[in-house]
Amino acid sequence: MTDTLTIPSRPRAFRPATTEPPVIRRVLIGVCLVVLTVLLFAPLIAVFDEALRQGWAFAIASLSESDAQSAIRLTLMVAAIVVPVNAAFGIAAAWAITKFDWRGKAWVITLIDLPFSVSPVVAGLLFVLMFGANSAVGAWLVASGFPIVSALPGIVLATLFITFPFVARELIPVMLEQGRAEEEAALTLGASGWRTFLTVTLPNIRWALLYGVLLCNARAMGEFGAVAVVSGKIRGQTTTMPLMIEMFYNEYLSVAAFTMAALLALLAFVTLTLKTALEWRYADQLAASHRH
Amino acid sequence: MNIEIEDIAKQFGATAALHPVSLFIPSGTLVALLGPSGSGKTTLLRILGGLEFPSTGRVLFDGTDATGLTVQDRRAGFVFQSYALFRHMTVFDNIAYGLRARSRKSRPAAAEIARRVNKLLDLIKLPDIGARYPSQLSGGQRQRVALARALAIEPRMLLLDEPFGALDAKVRKELRQGLRDIHDTTGLTTIFVTHDQDEAMELADLVVVMSMGRIEQVGKPEDIRARPKTPFVREFITA
């Protein structure tokens, strides 16, 4: 057998058809790393470097100033209100769009994307026009002691608007792909609509929901444009973390500005770590629910 | 349980999926709804299961009107075309789902649920797969798990939508006999949808040939083969 079938002496001929030669692979990986370094890692390091320029003590002191404290509290509070509300809205919207047929569905899908296509500043202006002191509704609201613009409700409304698409956008494709058969099966087995939702729909969408919530949270804490217009930027009252960063920066308080920026980046980093940890912990379930 | 279908019609918007059809199915029969795609057979099955409501007409179970009965109250064991197993649950949890979904009063204790699930796993001849996930099963195993899950609720009838559609020829043959055996053991009125005339003729006691939302002929396989009533039936069963 050895004399009829000679094995080629040069193993290069057996390079698998699905991979590139090592040179090209290294070049591609290299390009990717350079881009990531220039666009992502270097600026991030620069932010932390700038924040710690005059030492830890100084950076921490700049955060314990009362204006900075209230900005942090406000941002966390806005996120704590907006994220659950939009998670609920997003689930409801995705559920209605993917599990039922009704007139005007295509319109609603387009409308969900509206916050992505409208500039946040325009969105902020919309709320000022609707609820500002110059509008009839706004004047009445101010008179009755419940102002929306230049107050917490306005910031929450603007952030709700901006972050509305995140959860729904993540859920719609997943729920479309999964179809209605599993829900129908649960119903034929005697489960109520609510039980079907809790035991079948929700477990099937939980990963998409988690991504949506994390993205929504990141944007809710980081939103600048719409909040800048609506909030009135009252120091210590309606100034969120991104607004506070800009103020510090414009006042040449660069350590304070970069420390706050570093903190905002850290919050994002925590959510990303959390996501990765969950993925790692539930890897088997994730794999099981994707292949089927 | 016998099933009576009285002038059932179904409109989807402007299109009629079912023209008024009537049919009587005696208790304990194994019935095939046979027809090409778009003939209305799946719509009729879904109406019986309560997943779709008819535009007009009535459905009677053992002589009592069941037209308005909700899908949960029908107690129809339904096997879906792609089985629709709950992908995030083990086989055991899939089969136990219907029993656990019962109200606290009528829900069996955990030990009793386990006993029944294991009995069903024995019935489908897959006693050792309780801990697996649907994604770890072959097509034929999934079909049998779906059947066990439908049987777990102690259904009044068994409804199957193209139960062999997604399987290769060899597994099909085996599972046909499996369905026949389960039907004979449980004695349940069983209705399955198929577009495969061999399957219908070989397996069913009663074949209902459908086309374009109408019932073309109802009869025993041998009668339909010997005396096709319409040109459509003649052509379809010889194709």
From TrEMBL, chain A:
PROSITE patterns: ABC_TM1. It is a multi-pass membrane protein. Keywords: Membrane, Sulfate transport, Transmembrane, Transmembrane helix, Transport. It is found in: Cell membrane. GO terms for cellular component: plasma membrane. Its main location: membrane. GO terms for molecular function: ABC-type sulfate transporter activity. The chain crosses the membrane at residues 27-48, 71-95, 107-131, 137-164, 252-274. Residues 72-275 form the ABC transmembrane type-1 domain. It holds the Pfam family BPD_transp_1. The complex is composed of two ATP-binding proteins (CysA), two transmembrane proteins (CysT and CysW) and a solute-binding protein (CysP). Part of the ABC transporter complex CysAWTP (TC 3.A.1.6.1) involved in sulfate/thiosulfate import. Probably responsible for the translocation of the substrate across the membrane. This is Sulfate ABC transporter permease subunit CysW. It comes from Gemmobacter lutimaris. The gene is cysW.
